[in-house]
Design brief:
Distance between the termini: 58 Å
Helix content: 25-40%
Strand order of the largest sheet: 20-19-17-15-13-12-10-8-7-6-5-4-3-23
Number of strands: 23
Number of helices: 13
């Protein structure tokens, strides 16, 4: 990487440390000398600045850093970075040091997701609750500290979204060295001992594109905390409800969970729970999972009576969850067009929700509920509404934590949707799907919006004079993506006219902007299906529930039982992170699990 210029180095440094004008003259002088000593190395500047930013601004500390760098004048840039990393390492708490050294178990250049690494730290026992914070919040604090200090790097896409994380090669080299120096890891050959180690598993993740069959019994995995199966399953073992330490359960497809799933009292994450496949008792038992934080529900084809009962049970269960932070209701694998008024499902949601997704074609609100304004912790909101009136957005415009908003408006709006001044102060991403595009942005509206995604239909003889009024007020906007369909009665030339007006608006007001226009056949609007065999049930609100009474669409697929053809390879530092943590992208031999509910091979005890 080319060294940064002096100006760029200054900008990077003060972005971390704080405004230059707030520093005393002594600190300004030290800052200039420190930046010079960093030789334009971005990683060195970030790490040094993060240390200075985390401590009180006093001359003694800054002078110490300057003297440290000055004493290393005659070394290469890579050696300088190693020295800086070594210095920073000793400023970390013992808990954060341990979490950092864990990265030595990966290979150089490995990319990882934040949530996965946090689960592995927890499985290893590195994370313990502290006053006022649970283990997940503590793990997140440790991770954010490593990112803030420049020891872990976020990889961004072109829209500045974090896709995954990695570690700089020189930093990784230092971590490896420190882990050996402190005897953090010892790599040995585990050949022949795999069955014994399975009993101590805490983290299992399987990813494959074939249908798999789990062992009949899994009760022996009494230490298991995370089970993630990214594959189609035949069945879920009935004794999975007896895994006392299970925190995260992720299953794909419209799978039925065993009865008494509410016995998983420690469970924090449940994905996915299908309303078609599971019994009413299982839906009710969700309320017994007091520690549940993340609930992902799917809805597939079913009889209308059963779906109604499960929806009523779901509404009751959700209302009892005070600790729930993320709630998603999404279409299942074999989902037809089932519409239900969300007001009948969620009328008093958990007040600490941070992520709320109720997605079509499953769930549609008649209007934007007023109670959304009470969810002060809400960061992500993705919903569909049948109707959006001029003042409805004011109900959520003041939410201080909201950064992502996706609205699907099913009926054409008679008047412009107005974003008022100083509304949505921290919103960064807005997606709006509607039949007719009429938006107005007042001055200082959505001041931090970076990405705007729009989907609408072109209509016959539409003039589009009020398509994007005040779009130039979105001063932070970097990108717009648009999909234009054709409404009934309109022609392709109407779509071309809409596209032309949109491009004219952008070229006139936002020339610097990245934008992309796609043409679609039709952006779905709110249509009440009229077909034989269709039941219509009304709720207490304006919404309607539509579902087939006789049609049952089942997914066609070949089912392949995983057999132990690929032998389990010896564990080493390339394919495993510890004797309690296995991740794989291929089927593994799980036959050894089957009898562990009777005897623990590590202890010989039942």
């Amino acid at each position: 990487m080319e060294p940064l210029s002096t100006d760029d180095s200054m900008e990077l440094f003060f972005n971390k440390v704080g405004c230059k004008t707030e520093l005393s003259e002594h600190l300004k002088k030290y800052a200039e000398e420190i930046i010079t000593k960093c030789s334009g190395l971005p990683q060195a500047i970030i790490i040094i600045a993060s240390v200075l930013a985390s401590q009180p601004k006093n001359s003694e500390r800054w002078s110490h850093i300057k003297e440290f760098l000055s004493s290393r004048n005659n070394i290469s840039s890579e050696d300088l970075l190693r020295e800086i990393i070594g210095l920073i390492y000793y400023t970390l708490s013992e808990q954060v040091k341990t979490c950092l050294l864990y990265l030595s178990l990966y290979h150089e250049g490995y990319t990882f997701m934040k949530v996965d690494l946090m689960k592995q730290w927890t499985a290893e026992g590195f994370i313990t609750p502290v006053a006022g914070k649970d283990i997940n919040e503590v793990a997140e604090c440790y991770f954010d500290e490593l990112v803030g200090r420049g020891l872990v790097q976020p990889n961004l896409n072109f829209s500045d979204e974090v896709m995954f994380y990695t570690v700089h090669s020189t930093i990784f080299e230092v971590i490896k060295h420190k882990s050996i120096e402190e005897n953090f890891t010892t790599v040995i050959d585990y050949s022949g001992t795999i069955p014994k180690l399975f009993a101590k598993l805490r983290y299992v993740r399987i990813t494959t594109d074939i249908v798999i069959k789990l062992p009949v019994r899994m009760q022996g995995l009494k230490y298991l905390e995370t089970l993630e199966i990214y594959a189609s399953l035949l069945t879920v073992p009935s004794d999975i409800v007896h895994l006392p330490k299970l925190l995260h359960l992720h299953l794909q497809g419209d799978i039925k969970l065993p009865d008494y799933v509410g016995q998983l009292k420690s469970l924090r994450t449940l994905q996915s729970f299908d309303l078609r496949s599971n019994s009413e008792d299982n839906v009710k038992s969700l309320s017994e999972m007091a520690n549940l934080r993340d609930l992902h529900i799917t809805c597939s084809t079913t009889s209308s009576d059963r779906l109604n009962r499960n929806l009523v049970a779901l509404a009751s269960s959700i209302g009892k969850h005070e600790s729930l932070k993320s709630l998603t209701l999404a279409p299942g694998v074999s989902c037809p067009s089932i519409f239900t008024d969300c007001s009948s499902i969620v009328s008093s949601p958990p007040v600490f929700l941070e992520k709320f997704e109720l997605l079509p074609p499953i769930c549609i609100f008649s209007r934007l509920p007023e109670w959304f304004g009470q969810l002060q912790k809400l960061c992500v909101l993705k919903i569909a509404v049948r109707e959006l009136r001029r003042d409805d957005l004011n109900r959520i415009a003041g939410l201080q934590e909201l950064t992502v908003l996706s609205l699907d408006v099913r009926q054409p709006t008679a008047e412009s949707i107005i974003f008022n001044s100083v509304s949505f102060p921290f919103l960064k991403y807005l997606k709006l799907r509607c039949s007719v595009l009429r938006l107005a942005f007042q001055a200082e509206a959505i001041p931090n919006l970076r990405r705007l995604k729009l989907e609408f239909n072109a209509h016959s003889r539409e003039q589009y004079s009020d398509m994007l009024a005040g779009i130039d007020h979105l001063l932070s906007l970097q990108e717009i993506n648009v999909r234009i369909g054709v409404a009934p009665g309109a022609q392709d030339f109407d779509k071309m006219a809409a596209e032309s007006v949109f491009k004219d608006i952008i070229s006139k007001h936002l020339r610097h902007l990245r934008f992309n226009v796609q043409r679609a056949d039709f952006i779905e609007e709110d249509q009440i299906p009229q077909a034989p065999g269709l039941a219509t049930t009304s709720s207490h609100s304006d919404g309607l529930l539509y579902m087939p009474t006789t049609v049952d669409v089942t997914r066609q697929s070949s089912e392949i039982e995983v057999v132990p053809v690929p032998q389990v390879s010896p564990l080493n530092d390339d394919n495993v992170t510890s004797d309690r943590d296995i991740q794989t992208n291929l089927p593994r031999k799980f036959g050894e699990w089957e009898e562990w509910n009777e005897k623990d091979p590590s202890t010989g005890e039942g």
